[in-house]
Amino acid sequence: MRTLTLVLLFLTLTAADLSAAVQTKAIPYKHGDIQLEGSLYWDDAVSGKRPGILVVHEWWGLDGYAKHRAEELAKLGYVAFAADMYGKGKVTEHPQEATQMASQVRANVKDWQARAQKGLEVLKAQEACDASRIGAIGYCFGGSTVLQLAYSGADVKGVVSFHGAPQTPEGTTAIKSRILICHGAADKFIPEENLQKMRAALDKAKADWMLVYYSGAEHSFTVAGADKRGIPGMKYDAHADQRSWHEMQDFFKDVFASK
What we know:
By secondary structure, the protein is of the alpha/beta class. The protein has a single domain (21-257), classed as Alpha/Beta hydrolase fold, catalytic domain (Rossmann fold, 3-Layer(aba) Sandwich), CATH 3.40.50. The protein is 39% helix and 24% strand.
């Protein structure tokens, strides 16, 4: 009888372990007349409210890469929302089309910021999300987007840009969030003078910022398979990827611990 009880207990615990895992669901939302659809990720083994992280995609659109990063954040105990900045189903593999879609969003900075804010609102509305502890990360176009989110004065604790084009906050003192910029030192797409211009503007705005260079790292250094796209200057760097991911984790532990 005792053996049977132990077996049943083992099976019950095993079943609980199998059911407790990262969950995901698609969430439709709108910005004006634009229909958007993002993906939410959370670990149902974690109880209670937890910090939320907004994830913004590269210029290709909301593809598997951004969703993978959101899933990884959920495994770390966050609620993560991979936002959609282009429109439901707008994903491409063609650089020319990606440039066109990204440029269309960037053309109006206020609308760009407002669309990112819509994703933030979706994240904050989730039951498991602690709306007082929100962060955002982005890659390439998404890195620029989370910088714009910070410049808009959005109520986020911290933002992290990975190989994003530097954005200059012009005439603003509204920045509430701390900023981490992870940049490839060998990124040929981004002139050093643009980074210096951004630094000067951030200092003028009295922002709390960090800029980390990764030696030898080129554009898209966090994206495994970036080399296969055949675009000179885009290359995965496993070391820089791992280092920047750990840098991000330390950054959020610090900002979410702050009052």
